[in-house]
């Protein structure tokens, strides 16, 4: 387990109107689009790492689509699951015991949202010693908050508010629907 403290950096943007709420089908379609967008890139994706908890479902879809192994890393950033929390900059990462000692090709690191970029950065730092000189670590997320300045490499939706994913506890108030996933955005 490693804990990283990022300097106070980007802050998540919250319009505080109503959280976005993509459907399960939209999330699966978005994860498939992200995985599909990596096909043909060299080096080829040979593993997917989902960031628990939120990144596990989209990572599973991506790994199944690409027919590569799935690993789950734990990264805790928020103190609780309450909506509209700002990034603390402190991320605790635990890599799985079954992770290969060295990746030599492309690894897809998947999360449901990049709020500030601190979680992707912390997990990438934890994986640093497991990537060979020619290996590529590519970050993908379903959503990217408008305040995020570091990553991901690819995402589907830009958001300016909290997002309630279908694998989380439902939000008690009104929510906003997401548009159908149509394209992958890259930085």
Give the secondary structure arrangement, pairings included.
Blueprint: E1 2-5, H1 24-36, E2 45-52, H2 56-66, E3 70-76, E4 90-94, E5 106-114, H3 118-127, E6 136-145, E7 154-159, E8 185-186
Parallel strand pairs: 2-3, 2-5, 5-6, 6-7
Antiparallel strand pairs: 1-4, 3-4, 7-8
Helix pairs in contact: 1-2
Question: What does this molecule look like?
Answer:
It is a single chain. With 187 residues, this protein is α/β, with parallel strands linked by helices. 18% of the residues lie in helices and 27% in strands. The chain is built from 3 helices and 8 strands, in the order E-H-E-H-E-E-E-H-E-E-E. It has an 8-stranded mixed β-sheet with strand order 1-4-3-2-5-6-7-8, with helices on both faces. The longest helix is centred in the N-terminal third of the chain and has 13 residues. It is globular, with a radius of gyration of 16 Å.
Average per-residue pLDDT, rounded, comes to: 90
Query: Largest sheet, described in full?
Result: 8 strands, mixed
Strand order of the largest sheet: 1-4-3-2-5-6-7-8
Overall morphology: globular
Order of helices and strands: EHEHEEEHEEE
What is the first-to-last residue Cα distance?
30 Å
Tally of DSSP helical segments: 3
Percent in helix? 10-25%
Structural class comes to alpha/beta
Low-pLDDT residue spans = none
- Specify Rg, calculated over alpha carbons: 16 Å
Number of strand elements: 8
Which strand-content bin applies to the residues?
Answer: 25-35%
